[in-house]
Amino acid sequence: MRLLTTTILAAAALPAYAADPEFTVFDWAGFEEPSIFQAYIDQHGTGPTYAFYGDDDEAFQKVASGFRADVIHPCSQMVGKYRDAGLIEPWDTTRIPNYEQIEERFLDSEVFRDDEGVWFIPTDWGATAIAYNTETVPAEDVASLQVFTDAKYQGRTSLPDSSDDVWALAYLATGVTDWDDVSDDQFQAAADWLRQAHQNVMAYWSDPSEQAQLMASGAVDIAWSWNDGVVYLQADDYPVGFQREPVEGSSTFFCGYVNVKDAPGSEDKAYDFINAWLEPSAAKPLLDTIGYGHTSAEAMATIADEPAVAEGLADIDAPVLAQTPNDPALRQRQLAEFERIKAGF
């Protein structure tokens, strides 16, 4: 079963999935799906070697501590941290023919590109919203994010073990839709709300397959979920809804690849891999297997009429907190406070 297989892969010792000894990708579990980068396999006869992580901060700590990979797949808010630590180098976009097809909204930050070059190739994006069991949770209960603090669901919820995602939830739940300018009072209100939500949490999920397993087993009825957790549940015929329009809103994020400085493997294969990802043909398998959208306008045009786009990626009639690069000091404060909350303080 896919869910179980992905969970095992995510938990295995690094590297978790060996193939090409000349090229290693450090990635989220689930993105080793060959159909997404089929052009790379067609060219080289095999996929990359994969190593997996469960959240962005974990990945950064491993790389900063000496773990060796050729490319890494952070989400947008982590790119600056890799840059500041001197762990990555710019991409040569003259070697990436479809770079110009990437939508401008995914590149609109000096963190991603500046006079020194292009530091980040955004490839995929998705939503974080409420996944729920449609047979046990009435639709009216998920009309508000306050469902995560509702005593009726004590021990029946799951949140991601990801500081960025839980703070996006907490800010939205307390009326903040832009985390670029958060006051001390707003931070404290969100922290207080998270402490309330913690009382209902059965488990913090570390990757989407774990979240899907928690729901499929009946242990959890409600989760703050990415698109892929919902796709996995749908594949197992689980009665799952994805509420992106609670009154307080939901979140969006986007991720992509950074080029590791002094990487051990083949630089040519790094570009072959990125070019495979940016092929328009990558959009359909990315949507089908993970539920994410593609950053290329040309690629998205190939899946515009897919029902999964309307369900999980279309514009919504509710506030949206976009997880874009924010103040590094605030992000570190959020991370430290989240660890305290999980520990019961």
From TrEMBL:
Recorded coiled-coil stretches: none
Mitochondrion as UniProt keyword: no
Cross-referenced InterPro entries: SBP
A Pfam entry, by short name: SBP_bac_8
Annotated keywords: Signal
Keyword Zinc-finger: no
Leader sequence residues: 1-18
Highest taxon above the source species: Bacteria
Protein name per UniProt: Extracellular solute-binding protein
Source organism: Paracoccus hibiscisoli
